[in-house]
Amino acid sequence: KIAAMSSADPNQAAKAAQEIMATYESMKSEVRQYMLKIQELDADRNEHSLVVNTIKDLDPNRRCFRLIGGVLVERTIKEVLPAVKKNLEGVKLLTLLPRSSHGLFFSFFSDPLNDTKTD
Length: 119
Fold this sequence. Notes:
The chain is mainly alpha-helical and 119 residues long. 72% of the residues lie in helices and 10% in strands. The protein has a two-stranded antiparallel sheet. One of its GO terms (cellular component) is prefoldin complex. This is Prefoldin subunit 2.
């Protein structure tokens, strides 16, 4: 497209190239945002897994504390464990969505054979 335009109008070809670069930079920025969100969700998943593995074998009537919306509440393990497991499943699902819906784009930027630098 750009090659055909370059013979007709150099200004139009330059403008098309700038639009392509702007789109590329925008998409690259979006991928960075997705990657940061995935890292955040992975950290949440690891934290939830640690909690589940720590309290699953304890006495279900034992008191524990849970942070809900910035408020520390006292509950029992039998009340907290199902909620934490449910949250863990939700976080696991959320970590899969961006990877599957943007898999091709992510693979382009993370492909070691790709010479294009992302930084």
